[in-house]
Amino acid sequence: MHKINNKKKLNVFLAQPRGFCAGVERAIQIVEKSLIKYGAPVYVRHEIVHNTNVVNDLKKKGAIFVEELDEIPETKQPIIFSAHGVPKSVPKNAKNRNLFHIDATCPLVSKVHIEAEKLYKNGFEIILIGHQGHPEVIGTTGQLPDGTITLIETIIDAELFIAKNPIKLAYITQTTLSIDDTEEIVKCLKRRYPDITAPHKEDICYATTNRQNVVKKLSPHVDALFVVGSKNSSNSQRLVEVGIKSGCKESYLIEDENEIKWDILEKIENLAITAGASAPEKIVQKIIEALSNKFNVNLESYNHINEDIFFKLPVEFN
Questions:
Q1: Are 129 and 185 in contact (CB under 8 A)?
Q2: Catalytic residue among 47, 115, 125, 136
Q3: Low-confidence residues of the chain, pLDDT below 50?
Q4: Is the whole model's pTM more than 0.90, yes or no?
């Protein structure tokens, strides 16, 4: 006698693209290849990328994570700087201590650093649109002397900002911001300072833009959205905000399958799943597996754009 499947049907729409971007792939590879080439331990200043599962996997392989260089003993082992970038004082301190360091800064973050330096050399007053305390913001402001860059976080900050030099004013941005929020801030700055200089090329990175755009398209058509990512991941947090703003009020950030909102799923038919740029695909698959155990899952891929960006590894691995 056949057992009747009484599982509730759940339509699951997988956002594409989702998960790892080229900068994250590269940063994780740098740690893994360093462990193979130089052996354990390999020291990493700050989480290589903002994802608990990634960090825990690398710890098991022999990576030691520290927040500052002074936590590292005298060693010949490599010290890796995270994908978010570091202030100039960090490599300088490493050099002073004769520490062998490898820079895993995302090339798109390095582009913002170079941009900031050029603007400074050309006598511009610089605004950085970003989040106070985020490692990327600390790294970018740390490229120039203290007080050179003014941080603007909100539209209110933009309204209250008084330029010292309205004729030579420029802005740069953190790479993982909400496109829409940043656009509002930029509009305000341009209204107040029509001569403001914009970046030659958009600072918000392609992966952040693509992941937000697919969430914008999907959100009006689903009852709930799960964004896979860690609490300290800026781009993952932004995806939740984009989901809510785009019409899906039940948008949640979940670390992994242990944080699935089962009570929400009992009441809905259509669920979208995406993942922040630092969240591993294997976690998404574990979530789908857990859902399939409880529901009759109808899985569909929602393809927005194909990504084929690739960043070369540093010279140490050539």
A1: yes
A2: 136
A3: 1-4
A4: yes
